[in-house]
Amino acid sequence: xxxxxSAKLLKEFAPQLERTSLAGKIWIGFLTGVLLLGLVxxxxxxxxxxxxxxMRDNVVWGVYIVNFIFFMGISYAGALISGTLHLFRSEWxxxxxxxxxxxxxxxxxxGPVFILLCIGRLDRLPYLAFFGRIQSPITWDVIAISTDIxxxxxxxxLAILRDLASLRDYKELKVPAWRKKMYLVLALGYTGEPxxxxxxxxxxxxxxxxxxxxxxxxxxxxxxxxxxxxxPGWHSTIxxxxxxxxxxxxxxxxxxxxxxxxxxxxxxxxxxxxxxxxNIGVIMLVLGAFFGYFTFSEYLTKWYGSExxxxxxxxxxxxxxxxxxxxxxxxGVVLPMVVMAIPRFRTINNITISAVIVIIALWLNRYLxxxxxxxxxxxxxxxxxxAWQIYSATWVEWSLTAAGVxxxxxxxxxxxxxxxxxxxSEVSEERIGPDDLDLGL
Amino acid sequence: xxxxxxxxxxxxxxxxxxxxxxxxxxxxxxxxxxIATTKSKAEATGExxxxxxxxxxxxxxxxxxxxxxxxxxxxxxxxxxxxxxxMVIDLGKCKNARKCVDGCQxxxxxxxxxxxxxxxxxxxxxKTAPYWFPKPxxxxxxxxxxxxCPVGATYKRSDGxxxxxxxxxxxxxxxxxxxxxxxxxxxxxxxxAFDKDIPxxxxxxTPGVEGTVSKCDFCPxxxxxxxxxxxxxxxxMGTIYYGDMDEDVVTNGVETFKFSELIRDRxxxxxxxxxxxxxxxxxxxxxxxxxxxxxxxxxxxxxxKDRYKDTPFVKNxxxxx
Lengths: 441, 321
Known about the structure:
The complex is a heterodimer of chains A (441) and B (321). With 441 residues, chain A is mostly helical. Chain A has a domain at 229-380. Helices cover 74% and strands 0% of the residues of chain A. Chain A has helices at residues 3-18, 22-48, 63-87, 94-117, 127-130, 137-169, 177-186, 194-227, 239-265, 274-305, 308-319, 322-341, 348-375, 386-389, 395-418, 424-429. In chain A, helix 2 (22-48) packs antiparallel against helix 15. The radius of gyration of chain A is 23 Å and the shape is globular. Mean pLDDT of chain A is 89; it is low at 431-441. Chain B contains 9 helices and 14 strands. Chain B has a 5-stranded mixed sheet with strand order 13-12-11-4-14. Chain B has a 3-stranded mixed sheet with strand order 1-2-3, covered by helices on one side. A two-stranded antiparallel ribbon of chain B has the order 5-6. Helix content of chain B is 21%, strand content 17%. Chain B folds into 2 domains: 2-69, no CATH class; 77-284, Alpha-Beta Plaits. Classes of the chains: A mainly alpha (441), B alpha+beta (321). At the A-B interface, helix 5 and helix 6 of A face strand 5, helix 3, helix 4, strand 9 and helix 8 of B.
């Protein structure tokens, strides 16, 4: 029924898959360069020991853990957004849901690498399996993240299966033989028979529910790593939901950014319209309001009661980390609200700019959760060595952070070369009318 | 009846062990676990050494038949039977001589920068008196560090001691964030003292291992020999008392007290009791002090002095420290 329109769409997307422009090659070369820098930093850390990082006995976790939370966050966000939109059968989701799924799986592969960078004895990593203790939140995290990776991979695979079959059947596609073979194998003999289709839809529905549940559990477990300790600033009951909301908030920002970039690069103006930006922007607005509410509750109760160590922490946050605090907890909350609330400001560019600021704000928010708490322990830090008192990330940590971002961009670029960034099969199935897109704004 | 009698004898010998060992000093008794492995080929010297077996009996063994190698990883999971080690630190006596730090560093092959025992300059409130605060590991009865360890590298023994197996530790540092007392330190780089040829002993915390966590171990190896920990025996003021809560006795090598009476009479307390970690290190309040606080700065090297430059006491102090 839809194979003709599907073929028409494929014809439109085929150039993305078939060749890489000069700019695209330079982009890939640049990302590879950043990755090589990260490799140098990694070798430096392996040969020199963790002393080459800025982490010391007081601040034992630094930007590695911040990046870990950040990438896991946008991953869960992708899962939640794509799963929820799938279940609500929102018609307008179809051109952008693939990007959310890519974000999920790619950041989920990068996030855990950062926690590995933080581990002193990588050679003993198998001990987590040999001697694992279920009492430890790290074991919960290992179980949760591996479940999440499997669940998300399955969800993504189910979602791309029909496109893989279309690509297999699209004979005019000019790609190397190995890629044709890859499509053939990965399509698993799917032919689009009603029986296959209904099973596939059912499986996708089940996985969408699972992925939402897993994402909430996994990100709460990650939050509990912090809140089960007694540290001021971490020992908080709302950390689970706070982290989940912060994660989805940052993820909506990354999704808007991806939509903007791919719309420009692959000329998807026809499929991804202003309405998509506005709709995801509204989701971002709602999440931002929740995030602001949680942040406010968290700091208000600490500040108002002013227990001795909470007071010290608040003092550090508003003194040494003043600008970070303002950007992450004020601008990062208020700006998307202003942009989305006033129709005149609601342009694609403005929404994308506020999304970028949300992403930066959320990264800083995680930094403010991890580092200042470690800088204000119960017993005062009494050390003459400056590096031991305060944390300042070194070039090794920044290079590996940049490498993580580059890896994200590179994998996203490569994935978009293998599989269309817009879901061909679903988009072709029901062409969307302009009314479907409207959220009433 | 017979069983009871045996138990009584055992108790007596234990008590004798502690008194003898602690009061008469080093050398009279050797470590109980040591006899588990005796050198079979060595010739007898005729010189006998009294040792305590793991069941608490005292027996004599020829000196040359003793294997003085440190207790291995497996054996160091076993606490000394019938013991519950405890430390009492008299804050009124501490004058920041730092001998405890030096003695501990020497005993555990620690470089100068790494300290199992740390001395803080604390002041609870603006108007309250500042005091020196030596802080070892508290060997908590509800140790969060042990709870959060994903691989069981840090563990609590039956005698109350919390140790770290540096051959098991993966270096995730979760225990360091879980400990509210900033007790644990990390081996950020390879140190000269880290001898890879010597097997690691959690009871001695030596040799250190790069990329793993370490901390004060309460010196169970010395306790088995009837000796005080390095910090306690090094302190010129007799600030640090060490002993057995079950036996209800603590000593600093000069004076010996009933633990319960000492805590009762001198209002002993545990630091940050409200956190619920139930430490096994008790403090006696800094009353009747023999030295002024500023005396603690005498003879300190500049970088050690600099540690305390941000404390209210130093900031408000008029004159030279």
